[in-house]
Amino acid sequence: MNEFEVHNENEEELPQAESVSEDTTAAPETPQAVEEVTAVESEAGELEEPADDGSFSSRWTESEESPAVDLEGRQWYVVHSYSGYENKVKKNLEQRIETMGMQDKIFQVVVPTEEEIEVRDGQRRTYERRVFPGYILVEMIMTDDSWYVVRNTPGVTGFVGMGNRPTPLRPEEVQRIMKRMEAESPKVRVTFKPGQKVRIIDGPFSDFIGTVDEINMEKGKVRVLVSFFGRDTPVELDFLQVEKT
Fold this sequence. Notes:
SH3 type barrels; 2 domains; alpha+beta; six-stranded antiparallel sheet
């Protein structure tokens, strides 16, 4: 991949733990256009508020029975964090799991990412993009202790769930997310769209100005209408052969 320039997303320092763990009133905005997480939130309702005594079981009223915990079952939960601090929160949580000896209850912490190629001004740049900004996936057995470890990790603002109840992801939702992360071919993102004027910067039509007619993401091609003697002529070009005017 010598032709690609790899860029890593910059991360800021996470706010002090005191300000993070005590701030339960303001949560980051839910990212848009996230089908998997949106589906969970539409069923779940709202982010969970911390319990008064910090326990998991106390978040059910006296009239409700605390759900049975299957100690053999491992389920994936969606955890809300400050957007931009996902990797820092992941590291903090993994350290807490180790120091508090919770490896038998909390198994994996995942920040869903995918590679994306951006074509801009005739150059390709590869980015690692967070799929769900502000969200982390945690595979765990939900108990009082495991809930406490995750919920009180600096940077975590809550679980996604029904009212005060963390709601696990369905197996098919987890599969879709993991499959997206494991995709061999990075997604290509272009900075132009149909109807926009572009300049051809390579090939026999170099320096011609045309209008984007169609974009074929699978082939990495763009069809541009170029004016010849007053008539628009379609020309198929590679993404790298054009740039926005």
